[in-house]
Write a structure and sequence with these properties.
The chain is mostly helical. The protein is about 65% helix and about 5% strand.
Length: about 120
């Protein structure tokens, strides 16, 4: 799991904001080219590993904070497919449910703005 990406996502959660894949790439100087399928796969793997780690610890899925930069600002299909694996709910159903999506983001904000949670789990 990439701890630098996880730390940045926690920072976004504490600021109660989402970020785009491009913003994450630029801010952490990951040097990914999203026109390249292998780079898109790589960021998906990193984000997936982070959310699997968080899910196993009973915490909200941090990768829910990363969205496409189009006007819909939704997560990529890989996020929903990972959630299907973790939750057993068809990914298309999850993607169609904007309330569920917004709830995932809100859970991240709530968890990581709690000073006790931040102190106890930021380096986990």
């Amino acid at each position: 799991m990439d701890k630098e990406i996880r730390s940045k996502l926690i920072e976004f959660a504490r600021l109660k904001t989402t970020c785009t894949y491009s913003q994450l790439n630029e801010q952490l100087q990951l040097h990914l080219n999203f026109a390249d399928a292998s780079d898109r796969s790589l960021i998906g793997d990193w984000l997936g590993d982070i959310s699997i780690h968080e899910h196993e610890k009973g915490r909200p899925l941090l990768s829910s904070l990363v969205t496409h930069k189009d006007k819909m600002r939704e997560q990529g299909d890989g996020f929903y497919k990972l959630c299907e694996d973790l939750l057993g709910i068809p990914w298309q159903e999850l993607k169609a449910d904007k309330e569920w999506e917004n709830n995932q983001i809100a859970k991240c904000f709530e968890f990581w703005t709690n000073p006790i949670n931040y102190k106890n789990y930021k380096n986990d």
